[in-house]
Each structure stands twice: as structure tokens, then as C-alpha cells.
Amino acid sequence: MLDTLIAGLLRGNVYALGAVGISLVFGVMNVVNFAQFSFFGLGAMLAWFFVVQLQQPFWIALPLVLAICAALGLVINIAVVRPLAKYLPLAAMLSTYAVAQILDNGSQLAFSAQFRSFPQVLPTSNLHIGNMRFGTSDVVMLAITAVVMIVMSLFLKYGRTGRAIRATAQDQEAALQMGIPVGSVQNISFVIASGLGGLAGIFFSLYIGVVNPTSGMNIGMTAFVAAALGGLGSLLGAVVGGFVLGILEAFGIYWFGDASRQIIVFVVLLIVLVVRPGGLLGKVPLLTAEPLTGTFLGKGRPLRIPRWVWAAGFVVLGVLVPIFADTYVLTTGTQVLIYAIIAAGFTVTAGQAGVLALGQAGPIAIGAYISALLSVHLHLSFWLALPLAGIGAAIIASVLASPIWGVKGHYISIATLGLGIAIVAVIQLIVPQGIYGIPVPSIGGIELNTPFAYYVIDFVVLVLTLLVMWRIRRSHLGKVISSVGSDEVAALASGVRVRDYKALAFAISAFFAGIGGSLLAHQYTYIDTTMFTMMMSLLVVTIVILGGVGLPYGAVVGSIVLIGAMELLRFTPEWRIIVYGLVLILVVRFRPGGVLVRSS
Q1: Virtual CA dihedral for 141, 144, 149, 151, nearest 10 degrees?
Q2: pLDDT above 80: residue 179
Q3: Rounded to whole angstroms, how far apart are CA atoms 43 and 47?
Q4: pLDDT of 509 above 70
Q5: Any idea what DSSP says for residue 447?
Q6: How is this protein situated with respect to the membrane (predicted)?
Q7: Contacts of 44 by beta carbon, 8 Å cutoff, 6+ apart
Q8: Beta carbons within 8 Å of 16's beta carbon, 6+ residues apart
Q9: Exposed, middle or buried by CB within 10 Å (0-12, 13-18, 19+), for 379?
């Protein structure tokens, strides 16, 4: 047991280092910084490059990596985050996600995507306590964390800039009125956070012994959970959250195996957020409205689209494309249509109920697996498995999400993200192998397994989805859900059961996510859990924001741009994601309400 405790402390130390940077930026700017994840991988790759390729001593490489990461953080904040953070927290968050994609793929272009052995610049197993072996690297890492925390504490308590950071974190408007240069404070916070991200990435790679340009995502996600667990905005909470998470994770792996790691991480997060909203040491959010989507509500009005445009769009997508398009266009079109179905359903939660659920991959996976298992093992037809997949996803996702609707502020988005990842991890435990031989749709014994048939099926389902969304929005139910997103306090005062309507909106979105998952399963004829990633969830969110967060038909436009248009860059996959990131940044910078929304 002592061995497991030590292992948890060592791993938790890395999480703590990363969580401090995430919590610092959140406290000062009220932004969830996904770009911080990429600094873990980038810092590790730069250290590998300096030590292995340039043959530099580790103690020279270390400050160089910190300086490069800090400088990049400064550029990112000035060019991308700060222009949006004050007015549109959701846009700023999506921009950091876009920057993360650019950094990860830029690192792959520079270093290639292969895994490499991280140089043993410090001994990793020369010490032992009982049967537990550890190394000088672990001791140094613990010492650096201790030094960082002591210096940060003294800096924040006694330093002039540190006090300015604390004042800005407490009340940005009041800090401005007191003459504090908030812009400079935010720049400094980003610089410190980015440097700490690079430092954490170096020691994590030294701990596990390998490095890869995208290796920062997993450690970054766990560090983010640690920051939320301790309380976003609390540096002490970030450290406590990191060590608590590391210890719980170590004991969970010891008792249940490594396959349960993600379940343990996110179940712990969900329990803490439900029992103590705001984290262990953070403040309970006073905002009752969801700040991420709430900033979009009322920021603009949908563009007035003439009826002939709808008719023309229907003819183009439903008639001309299937008749004249080649196999490649039809195959791409099926992906566009499926993501449009999922995103259109999600507008009920994000656009009407005002909840930015970041874990849509969970309901998609539930729908895909329900449909596949029903078809493969119970031999149900696709036409029966499809609606059952949607109903199953709605019920299961709603039951699992039921405890989180009392969580407020950014934490509800974090909780849904954790729920989505935990759902996929549970599915991985229950069905460890992929499912092969999923039957394709058929009518009268005739298999509909051509790109043309898939496209027509998906198009019909999309039309039905949009009709249902239109009917919901015009109904009394839709107006009540919209009142929750527009002003939760007023809705509560009017007797609206806010939690129940949020849960209902989430169930509707989960239903259409399950439908989309079923379509994916039967058209791929094979699924496994690696398909249902955090990137899938964020892609759905991005599609919704691009078209207009409250517009179901905007999801079609967003899907065409982000799924269809990106196929134009298929010939250069290395640059594809980078261009995607740049497009996303430009959209949220110049069309923050979405392509189909104009300023009020």
C-alpha cells in the first residue's frame, strides 16, 4: 500500500504542476484554456529536441523550453484569447481549443507523430522505499513543485504584480477602476501558466519514459480535472486537487486495473462537483446562468432567410447532390449529414436551455453501441435499432446526468465533459473489443450499402430532425426551455422547474446524438471506443457555434463548413487540422454569434 501511495504522490505531483497553470488563467480571465494541454506535449518535445538532437545538457534545455513556452503563451493571449475573453468567454474558450489543434499539429509537422524514448537525463529508479523503486527525477520533480508553490505564494502575497493578479482574479472591473493594468496582468498570468505547462510536460515524459507531440492531451485533461477538483481559480486547490487525484487514481488502478483509470478520474470529479459545487477549495459560483453560452444569448438575431433559399437548399442537398455527385462527394456528404443531425439536436441544450454540454461523444457512443448490439446479437433490423438507439441514449444519458443539474457556472460544462468521457470508458470496460459485422440497412432483403443509399437515408433523417426541432421551438415546451437559457433567475421566479427542463433538453439532444451514433455504426459496419473522443464532442460544439448556437438549421451550415469544406484539404492531412484551427479562430473572432447570426 505504501508503494501505491508513493506512486500516487509522484503522479499527482505532475497533475498539480499542470493544474496550477490552468487554474491561474481561469482565475484571472474566466477562460477554460485548452491550449494549456498542448504545452504539456510541446514542452516535452522541445526538451527531447534540445537534449537528443542538439546534445544540450538538460539544465540548459530546461530554461530554454520554459522561455519558448512562455513566449508562445504571451503571443496566444495577445493575438487570440484577450480580444475575446472580456466579451465572449465561449468564443475565447473555443479559440484556445483551436490554438491547441494548431500547436499539436504544428509540433507533429516539426517532429513527426511517432513516439520516442525520452532521454533519462536524471535517474528514474535508483532509489527505493520497501519494494517501491523511484528515482532522483521524482525527487527533483517534487522539489520543483514545492519551490514553485512557495515562490508563487510569496509572489501573490507580497509582490506588487502578484497582488495585482489576485485583485484581477477577484474582480476585474474593480481592478481596472483602481488603476491596475489588467491587460498586463493577464499577459503575465498566461506566461506563467504556459511555462508551468511546459515544465509539467517535461517531468511527465521523464516519469513515463516516452514522448509524442500529442501526448499532452491525456495529461492535460487530467490536470484540468485536478484544477476543477480543487476549485478553478484556487492555486492551493489546484495543488490539492492534483495530489488527491493522483493518489485516488493510483489506488483505483491498484484495485481495479489500468482500464478503470478514466472512470475513476471523472467519477471522482462528478461526485465532488455534485457534493461541493466549486471544487474542494474553490468558491461556489454565484451565477445561476451558464456563463459560456449565456454570453451568446441575446448577442444577435438570426439572419432572415427567404423561403426560396430553403427550397433551393432542399433541392440541392436532397436531389442534385445524390443524382450528380460522385462516390467521394456522397461519402463526405454522409458525414456532413450525420454531424448535422447530432448538432441540430444539441441546439436544444446549448441554444435554448443555455447549457454548454461538452460531452456529446458519450450519448453518441451509447447510441452506436445499442444499435450495433441489437443488430448483431438480437438480429433486429436497422429500422428498429435506429429509434431504439436514440431512446436508449436519451434514457441512459439522462439518468447518469441527473445529479449534475444543480451545478452552476462553468462547472456544469466541465461535469458534462467528464460524464461523456466516463461513459466511453465504461463502455470500453463492458465491451473491450470492437464490434464487427454490423449489418447495413436493408429493405426487403436488398442491402442499402452504397454511398447513394447512405446519403439518402441520412438526408431523410436530417429533414425529420429539423422538422422536430422546428416544432419544439414553436411549442410551449420550447418557449419554456428557452426561458431557462435566457434568464434562469426569472424562470425560477415564474415557477419553472429549471433543473427538470435542463434535464429534458439534455435528453432531447442525447436522443439525436444516439440517432447519429446508430447511423455511424451501421454505415461503418464496425465501431470501437477510440472513435468517441473528446475531439468528437468539441467538434459538435464547434459546428453548433459556427452556424449559430440557437439555430438548428445553422448546424447544417456549420457541418458543411467544418466537415465538408475540410475535405478539400484531404490531399494534405498534415495541414488539415491547422487550417481547421485557423478557420475556427477567424469565425469566433469576426462572427462570434455564428455565420447565420447578425449583430442586434
Answers
A1: 180
A2: yes
A3: 6
A4: yes
A5: E
A6: Multi-pass membrane protein
A7: 118, 201, 202, 204, 205, 211, 215, 216
A8: 145, 226, 238, 239, 241, 242, 243, 246
A9: exposed
Q: Which residue has the cell 455511424?
A: 520
Q: Which one, of 77, 82, 94, 101, lies nearest residue 593 by Cα?
A: 94
Helices 58-76 and 35-48: crossing angle, nearest 10°?
Answer: 150
Report the predicted TM-score, pTM, of the whole model to 2 decimal places. Answer: 0.86
Residue 556 near residue 599 (C-beta atoms within 8 A) = no
Q: Which three cell numbers stand for residue 328?
A: 467521394
CA distance 385 to 190: 49
User: Where does 258-338 show beta strands of DSSP type E?
Assistant: 300-302
**What is the distance between the alpha carbons of residues 152 and 136, in angstroms, rounded to a whole number?**
24
> Any idea what the Cα angle at residue 45 is, between residues 39 and 47, rounded to 5°?
100
Q: Name the average pLDDT for the chain.
A: 84
Q: DSSP letter for 77, please.
A: I
In 3D, which of 48, 51, 49, 70 has the Cα closest to residue 60?
51
Q: What span, in angstroms and rounded, lies between the C-alpha atoms of 377 and 431?
A: 13
Pairwise CA distance, residues 473 & 551, whole Å: 10
Report the distance separating Cα 87 and Cα 590, nearest Å: 13
Of 431, 460, 409, nearest to 532 (Cα)?
431
* Residues 39 and 273: beta-carbon distance below 8 Å: no
The Cα–Cα gap between 85 and 20 comes to: 20
CB 202 within 8 A of CB 18: no
Coil, helix or strand for 598?
Answer: strand
Q: What is the pLDDT of residues 395-454, one digit of tens each?
A: 999 998 888 887 776 778 888 888 888 899 899 989 988 899 999 999 988 888 899 999
Positive or negative, the Cα torsion across 254, 362, 562, 37?
Answer: negative
Q: Which helix (H) or strand (E) holds 443?
A: strand 442-443
Report the range of poorest mean pLDDT among 452-461, 509-518, 553-562, 567-576.
567-576
The yes-or-no verdict on residue 592 having pLDDT over 70 is no
Instruction: Locate 340 and state its grid cell.
Output: 448535422
Residue of 257, 7, 245 whose CA lies nearest to 130: 7
**CA 491 and chain centroid, separation:** 29
The grid cell for 473 is 421551438
What amino acid is encoded at 208 in this protein? I
- DSSP one-letter code for 510: H
Strand 597-599 to strand 300-302: parallel, antiparallel, or no bridges (unpaired)?
antiparallel
Return the bridge partners of 210, or none: 117
Phi/psi class of residue 298: alpha, beta or left (left: φ > 0; alpha: ψ in -120 to 50)? left
Which among 339, 357, 429 is positioned nearest to 398, based on CA atoms?
357
Residues 6+ apart with CB under 8 A from 424: 262, 361, 362, 365, 529, 532, 533
Residue 203: name the closest of 144, 117, 132 by CA: 144
Query: What's the helix, strand, coil split of the chain in %, to 5?
Result: 75, 5, 20
**Residues 45-87 pLDDT 10s:** 999 999 999 999 988 999 999 999 999 999 998 988 887 766 5
